[in-house]
């Protein structure tokens, strides 16, 4: 590393930090910038929540399992790394809502739970006649006129009533954040719905008008349709391995934690737990907001972030021989209504959705437990969680044997919650830190999107801000 080079430290080796480091080094090489980039990761591995287990021919994801293709940044990153040929699409199939003891197909034409086709909605068993009539009120209700932020629950209950929210919209939307719809911020999670109401008054009519028309598909199960998600043939960790391989030599420090952040003139000084001190010209913080808040607390900064909770969740992957599972439903999985008495919140029939994950003659089922207000199950032992999940699954399908193996993955405080007022708190935090630490940038799942492409976008945006400030 050159003595006269500008030094940038990226704290956190998840996908946000990796993307920032990769693209910053790429920019420096291509433009000949005098720049040294150092990525500091507290654990012994990179990738954050991206963790793939490859076992006995199975590809099992501990954290996220895919990304939306329409969000371009992940696909672009794959191309820039030269691994785009390893991408595979999901197989499509019917998805269900588990209400009480019955699997109900999600009505065709539902866009995040909002009906754009009335026929399937009217004939669905998910709702009573009263619930359907109340939801139809959206066609006649005026715009809310509310300008300030509000919860998703307040917004959607006003448009459709509680029954449709609890049995369809809530399972679909809260599954993304493992959150409580009555606390999650509309402006910070799904602002497009507010815009649709403002422009069209009715969400049903507005979503029907704005949703792209689908190309007609062949009828019947097994008909090929284009999946909207991508992953890698050998698991999502493929991208982490490629990034680590292509980052410049000696630019990554693992098993090293930042214990203290100070300022010396225009430099930001990082004190590490190994006793080393680093003076940086710029810092990109990509760790969870709880970590960032504690580091800046001695300076009286980022107190706003203490109002952002996080939810603890777990995934439970079970492998079975094919003959031990009897399923009378075709499809790729189901979500669970809060009105049902189940510990699991969702289930993916992974061997159907992602055929490349599972050897021939085997079945892979991935269930989810834990959500806002209901997290205690995650603290139980692996064997206890396995038995609880297995009991729930046996209420839905016939399972003749115990799994060949089970992998429980816990994510303690792993899901940041964008509660009402999130955008305002984030803006206040950034203004506050810019005054005392102008060359420190915040990026990652805690701030402007929890999806993998959202995190990549934030990493790239922080990288661009730093380069603009330094050169």
UniProtKB/TrEMBL annotation:
Q: What is this protein called?
A: Coproporphyrinogen III oxidase
Reactions accelerated catalytically: coproporphyrinogen III + 3 O2 = coproporphyrin III + 3 H2O2
Q: Which residues form the Amine oxidase domain?
A: 15-467
- Lineage of producing organism: Bacteria, Bacillati, Bacillota, Bacilli, Bacillales
Q: What does this protein do?
A: Involved in coproporphyrin-dependent heme b biosynthesis. Catalyzes the oxidation of coproporphyrinogen III to coproporphyrin III.
User: What is an example of a GO molecular function annotated in this UniProt entry?
Assistant: oxygen-dependent protoporphyrinogen oxidase activity
Give the cofactors, semicolon-separated. Answer: FAD
- Give UniProt keywords alphabetically: Cytoplasm, FAD, Flavoprotein, Heme biosynthesis, Oxidoreductase
Similarity remark: Belongs to the protoporphyrinogen/coproporphyrinogen oxidase family. Coproporphyrinogen III oxidase subfamily.
